[in-house]
Design brief:
single chain, five-stranded parallel beta sheet, three-stranded antiparallel beta sheet, 9 helices, about 45% helix, globular, binds adenosine monophosphate
């Protein structure tokens, strides 16, 4: 059992790493962004509230986000731990997560920080395309991880879509929010000796081998 938090700017590869860990380590994947997008798609009250913030590139208020997550935490009993993707995004959320896990006699075991230079973020996110099939959720990039057929997922054949908030203006705001709030978590988890930093460069295609190597090296050096 291992609970992993993925930390990194928008477009740093958290979703890709989550998909790989889900597949290779039999872990559950909890992505608060995906949860919000699902609520928006289903036109729920929660979705309507969240959308206002998401469209502007701001964080959805902690209370809404934490309550949503609490509701989902018990759905993942049988997995080999959970990958948290996009949560926590600030100290308050980190403390809430700690408590939620503590209530289940668990903890955060590793924080994987995907460290990518700022100047690459906008370029990576505007070129991102994702599979519209929620069960698949494969992530592509028109620059360095192109689908074989234009606009179609290699894995499941569904249509690829672009996230509404993956436009230059919203990403600029998301990046600002990341610097103002989420980056504090680097120090927070460093002090708890949980942080493992991976330096990524432009146009990198994160592979299964890479994720295995990171886990191995973390376990050997802890
Ligand atoms: P993501 O898919 O992680 O990039 O999230 C997309 C958007 O959903 C973010 O820009 C936020 O508006 C919102 N969001 C996702 N996760 C959180 C969170 N943990 N706290 C607050 N807002 C979030």
């Amino acid at each position: 059992m291992m609970n992993i938090v993925l930390l990194g700017a928008p477009g740093s590869g958290k979703g890709t790493v989550s998909n790989l860990l889900e597949k290779t380590q039999n872990m559950a994947h909890i992505a608060t962004g995906d949860m919000f997008r699902e609520e928006i798609k289903n036109k729920t009250e929660l979705g309507k509230k969240a959308q206002e913030y998401i469209d502007k590139g701001n964080l959805v208020p902690d209370e809404i986000t934490i309550n949503m997550l609490k509701g989902k935490m018990n759905e993942y009993k049988d997995s080999n731990g959970v990958v948290f993707d996009g949560f926590p995004r600030n100290i308050k959320q980190a403390e809430a997560l700690e408590q939620m896990l503590k209530d289940k006699n668990q903890k955060v075991d590793l924080v994987l920080f995907l460290d990518i230079p700022d100047e690459e973020i906008i370029y990576r996110t505007v070129k991102r395309r994702i599979c519209s099939n929620k069960e698949c959720g494969a992530i592509y990039n028109l620059e360095y991880k192109k689908p074989k057929v234009d606009g179609i997922c290699d894995i499941c054949g569904s249509k690829l879509i672009q996230r509404k908030d993956d436009n230059e203006e919203t990403i600029t705001e998301r990046l600002k929010v990341y610097h103002e709030q989420t980056k504090e978590l680097i120090k927070y988890y460093e002090e708890k000796k949980l942080l493992y930093r991976v330096k990524l460069h432009a146009n990198i295609n994160i592979t299964e081998e890479m994720t295995k190597e990171w886990l191995k090296s973390y376990n050997e050096n802890r």
